[in-house]
């Protein structure tokens, strides 16, 4: 299938390595233009809200924060300094109080241009600002992500987990024993599963590693995409004027160009096969009579996000869970004990089902929850408009006891909320699964209600169930098969995704 000129910027600011120079140059130029021409009069409407001095005048400081790769920590420091509402740009307020979630991320909340990346006429579900349009697009793509659909695919998913364990065993244990970087192994697993379930394709991430630079190039361009999100007007201008230069195209040799090509190929194959009764996720969308006449160009924007949205999120969740457990031997020992007892109970550990895990290894859920709390894969803030008429309120909302007028951008960050000491106590930076496993049901219900790791409201993560399912199965089988020694914890920077490297481990076969 031919390449369209208007692929999403998220996708095309992600070109080959030489393209990185090109996009950085454009960003630099853009910032300069912005700094010289666009600093305007101080916006006084939100002057009652505390924040860094520059925030009343310009968005440049928020760009600077992004480029450090530790924006989330800067946001937390700002809340510690200024309180639960921080003015972060002339028209943006950040909120650190979890009880604001339902008021911000309500059914009819519209997204702001923070998310817009597409220079073309088509918007994917993630970019879509309008809540009604979003609902239509999301409804279409939902079926393969439902809990039931994930459960139905347990055998397929188990097959990949089995391959994953076998690949780790063959490459890094026995005669080939060596210390290796585990950081991306969760990414490989989830990518193989998603591409198989959704596109019916065998991509071989587990077998061959990063597919033609997909992960590497996504990460390399994270800073540019993330920085431009803070400058929506400038971004729109750039897209309109230079969009075509920034857009990698299918088969142009760039990492993302390859993925676009692959996506188009996979879509083409499904269309050609025309298998109306298949279980492949994409077929269920393409051949659903309810979707007759669907705009393919629009769907294509979503297809790429399904691939890119899966990898570094679930990958980060898995790598941090492994690291947190290895750094906390008592937690690891407690989890191991439950796993070993399940094995003694004659459960086939090579094929242990999700429901058996839930019934026999209850501590795992607390470990996963706590690891996601301590190390959320998405850390940056997720903006919405305070709506004027759409929210039924007709002009503003009250947050943390203060009135916020319509037309203001408000946002919470999963990282900041997960460090809320009123909710979690003073040890927010520790990994302590007992926080959940030994708390009252009441407290757990509250913590779950205010969990922002997967977003909140109608735009919350569509892949949450799949991600949880895969994480459970992968970690149980990993700990069943191997003893792991942590050699180095590694480190990362967060942009759109985590760019994390150097989680060095040594595996030893247990069984
Ligand atoms: C631990 C793993 C994951 C985390 C922490 C995570 C986090 C998030 C968050 C915070 C959002 C909301 C974004 C917003 O409000 O702007 C989101 C949306 C989304 N996620 Fe995930 N995600 C994960 C796994 C996945 C997986 C495995 C997939 C796909 C297979 C996926 C696909 C998506 C999609 C398509 C959306 C957009 C939903 C919409 O706009 O309605 N995610 N995710
Ligand atoms: C794993 O268990 C499922 C039922 O839970 C069964 O259908 C499948 O054949 C089993 N696979 C293997 C390899 O034993
Ligand atoms: C499945 O996902 C929904 C949100 O889509 C969430 O409310 C629910 O808790 C999830 N269930 C599991 C087992 O993760």
Automatic annotation (TrEMBL):
PROSITE patterns: CYTOCHROME_P450. Its cofactor is heme. It comes from the Eukaryota. Pfam families: p450. InterPro entries: Cyt_P450, Cyt_P450_CS, Cyt_P450_sf, Cytochrome_P450_monoxygenase. The chain crosses the membrane at residues 20-39. One of its GO terms (molecular function) is heme binding. Keywords: Heme, Iron, Membrane, Metal-binding, Monooxygenase, Oxidoreductase, Transmembrane, Transmembrane helix. Belongs to the cytochrome P450 family. This is Cytochrome P450. It comes from Podospora australis.
């Amino acid at each position: 299938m031919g390449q369209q000129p208007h692929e999403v910027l998220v996708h095309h600011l992600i070109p080959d390595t030489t393209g990185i120079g090109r996009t950085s140059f454009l960003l630099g130029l853009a910032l300069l233009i912005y700094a010289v021409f666009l600093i305007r009069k101080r916006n006084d409407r939100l002057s009652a809200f505390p924040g860094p001095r520059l925030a009343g005048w310009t968005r440049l400081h928020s760009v600077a924060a992004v480029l450090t790769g530790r924006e989330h920590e800067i946001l937390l420091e700002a809340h510690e300094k200024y309180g639960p509402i921080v003015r972060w740009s002339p028209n943006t307020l950040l909120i650190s109080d979890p009880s604001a979630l339902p008021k911000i991320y309500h059914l009819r909340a519209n997204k702001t241009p923070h998310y817009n990346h597409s220079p073309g006429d088509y918007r994917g579900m993630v970019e879509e600002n309008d809540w009604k349009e979003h609902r239509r697009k999301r409804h279409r793509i939902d079926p393969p992500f439902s809990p039931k659909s994930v459960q139905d695919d347990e055998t397929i998913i188990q097959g990949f987990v089995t391959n994953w364990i076998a690949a780790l065993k063959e490459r890094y244990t026995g005669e080939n024993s060596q210390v290796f970087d585990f950081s991306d192994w969760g990414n490989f697993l989830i990518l193989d599963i998603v591409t198989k379930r959704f596109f019916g394709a065998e991509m071989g991430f587990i077998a061959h590693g990063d597919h033609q630079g997909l992960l590497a190039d996504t990460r390399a361009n994270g800073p540019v995409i993330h920085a431009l999100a803070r400058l929506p007007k400038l971004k729109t201008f750039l897209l309109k004027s230079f969009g075509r230069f920034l857009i990698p195209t299918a088969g142009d040799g760039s990492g993302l160009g390859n993925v676009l090509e692959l996506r188009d190929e996979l879509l083409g194959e499904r269309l050609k096969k025309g298998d109306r009764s298949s279980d492949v996720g994409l077929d269920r969308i393409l051949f659903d009579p309810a979707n007759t006449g669907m705009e393919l160009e629009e769907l294509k924007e979503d297809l790429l996000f399904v691939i890119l949205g899966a990898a570094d999120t679930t990958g980060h969740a898995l790598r941090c869970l492994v690291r947190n457990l290895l750094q906390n031997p008592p937690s690891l020992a407690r989890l191991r004990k439950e796993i070993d007892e399940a094995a003694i109970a004659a459960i086939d550990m090579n094929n242990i089902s999700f429901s058996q895990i839930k019934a026999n290894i209850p501590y795992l859920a607390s470990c996963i929850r706590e690891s996601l709390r301590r190390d959320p894969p998405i850390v940056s803030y997720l903006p919405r408009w305070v709506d004027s008429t759409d929210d039924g309120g007709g002009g503003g909302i009250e947050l943390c006891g203060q009135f916020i007028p319509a037309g203001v951008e408000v946002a919470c960050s999963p990282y900041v909320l997960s460090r809320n000491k009123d909710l979690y106590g003073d040890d927010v930076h520790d990994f302590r699964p007992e926080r959940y496993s030994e708390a009252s049901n009441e407290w757990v219900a509250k913590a779950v209600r205010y969990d922002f790791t997967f977003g909140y409201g109608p735009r919350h993560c569509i892949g949450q169930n799949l991600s949880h399912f895969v994480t459970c199965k992968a970690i149980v089988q990993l700990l069943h098969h191997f003893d792991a020694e942590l050699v180095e914890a590694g480190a990362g920077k967060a942009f759109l995704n985590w760019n994390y490297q150097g989680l060095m481990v040594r595996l030893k076969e247990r069984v």
